[in-house]
Amino acid sequence: MIEVRGIARRFVQGHGRSARTVQAVDGLSWVAADGAISGLLGPNGAGKTTLLRIVAGLLAADAGQVLVDGIDVATQRQRALARIGVLSDARGLYPRLTALENIVYYGQLHGLSRAAAEARAAGLARTLQMEPLLPRRTEGFSQGERMKTALARALVHDPHNIILDEPTNGLDVPATRALREALRRLRDEQGKCIVFSTHLMQEVQRLCDPVLVMARGRAVAAGTVAELCAQTGHDDFERCFVQLAFGDAVEEGPR
Amino acid sequence: MIGAAWTVLCKELRDALRDRRTLLTIVLSSVAVGPLVLVLLSTLVAGIEQQAESREIVVAGIEHAPTLRNYLERQTYSIRPAPGQFEQRLQDKRLGEPVLVIAEGFEAELARGEAPRVELVLSSANPRAQAGASRLARLLQGFAQEQATLRLAWRGVSPATLQAIEVDERDLASPAARAAQWTALVPFFVLMAVLYGALHAALDTTAGERERGSLEPLLLNPVSPLALVLGKWGAVAAVAMLIALLSCASFLPGQWLLRSETLAAMFRFGVGEGAMFLALLLPLAAALSALLMAIAIRCRSVKEAQANATVLVLAVSLLPLLTLFNQEGEAPWHLGVPALAQITLMGRVLKGEPIAAWELALPLMVSTVLAALCLAFVARSLRTAALK
Question: Which domain range does residue A37 map to?
Fold first, then answer.
């Protein structure tokens, strides 16, 4: 379970006179429960990646607290990280290593023995249907193959909490479907806490249980897709999302 | 933390060793450097020796001077008549010897005691001919002296009256020190090989990791940034040290290739010298690796890092020139400057001069401090670098 309590984070862009402050995350609270795929939906620049980086302890928050299975990320980062698997926005692989070596490397960094990491990689390869990829060097992998390898790498230590930042970026339809299937199995069979961040409504609609809609660093709505639609009075989730995410801005904006 | 650093080190080494083409280029150039420098040096020295040994002079109009010919032949010189248009040939550097021109009335004027005029034709833009000119001038001086001595003796004057003082030359340079003039380039090439050996690996593990987008996921592992940096540094330094080892070792068989016997006798590079070179280079390899990583971690791409690293490469290649151009010799502060200290000390190893323990300890300490500072900087910048 991941609990986010009143997280805030600002960035200063530029130097000197041209410097301006951007409030990337603005006092956001949220809980991603076990045994569920929690959606994090927001337009580009809503602060999703910043929030997830704070959850993973890559960025320090200006205010607030993040608890992963009750462990404070800010004070016990390494213990918390051992319980999270993150497929981040950047998912670079080592092109001269094989997919298996890429996965085993992370396993070893998580404290697994080589044999244990290899066994785990083989199991993940079955789940993600990427067994033929394992002995190949990752140089020249397609987007889908890269994503699968990066996902297997993020899950090699069998984390209880899984964070996926825009995982379907660049994936074709069969790969997206295979990923969705794999995530459902992880949720149903192992009761994992999965956070799925995206700007695509269709993904959320097909996969997520509860959804948090983010805009300009704030949580603007939360609930299942059906609840959100009911809340806004739209049948169409896209119109519902547009109203939730951009509604205020359209009214307030200078246009 | 040590376990994690070891995992990183093994991975980075495997990654570096898989990059066969780059590795092959670096290894080949570092191994080839030793023998290549030696062969170039020996060709140069052999050429100079050959000219010194060839007892041949070029004269135009020797038929006008039988007495001079007699003298030259007594000095066991053979005389070659000057080719046609020798002035043009000298200017074009097609003729490598100065030319002595003797006028028609030479013998008669000499007999009359009138000091006949000869002409020594050379071009100061032609270095080969220039080298022979002083030898020829000395020969003529000898001939003049002999004639003068004979005349004085004829008149009953002791030849010693002409010689007010006597000059004895005493050369203080040992054979090793003389050779060091020629072999001063050797430490420089070894140093550059080490720097280029570390360059690629250092850039790939820092700026390369940023460029690939693999630094952010790497930091999501429950490992401290310092452990990651130590592992990476270990791998880079290992590659740099391997290059240092290969480069030093290449000078051992390289000696067989020496064409000049004098140089082969003077260029002392045995296992002992090789070990001293390594003792000096290994700490420097470690420090330069850390410094390159510190430069590269600030860069978003390998290309940008290469541009930045050029400054360091330039500095390291210019520092040794200080010792070449510095007329005042070695200053104590030289030993406190990385790269310069190693160049200086390696030069002294080649000259066969003793090196005190503190002179080894000072550069070692400087290298250690430099490496520690750079590694701390890289570890601190790692997280910020991953997110930008």
Answer: 1-12+20-83+161-250
